[in-house]
Task: structure prediction
Amino acid sequence: MPVTSARLTGLDDQGSPLMIKIDQVLAYRDRIHHARCRVAANQTLDALKDIGVSARVFGKLTQPGKKLPYPSPIELCIVEPAAADGELASTVGQTIRDVAGPLGVRVLWLEQLTPKMRLHILEHGRSSLGAGNDSPCNSP
Result:
């Protein structure tokens, strides 16, 4: 069971005692992760668009008021028909790795999904996340 109510102690720059609750640290980490994933998702969508591939982000990143907790991956669906096979799939995978870096990305191919899941992603997935107000310094 993770510890969330303990305190971290140390000294600040002036040598005074410093106490931070672990739950505050974890919330801050989650906000930073969410903001980094949002930026990476937008950059990935732009990079895929540059190579002619249509994609949608779905999941918590697209839901207002929801935060993507660490270490949750970015959820991305490739809409391009017949992109799951061959050289295009390799190019798409490399583009995602190059842009998203160490952040996890869960990639789905629209043509391989059930009709119900396809409809859900096409209706609720987003091809851009906009700027948002995701500064890690903002309160949750």
User: Anything to note?
Assistant: Residues 133-140 have pLDDT under 50 and may be disordered. The longest strand covers residues 7-11. Helices lie at 22-50, 86-100, 115-124.
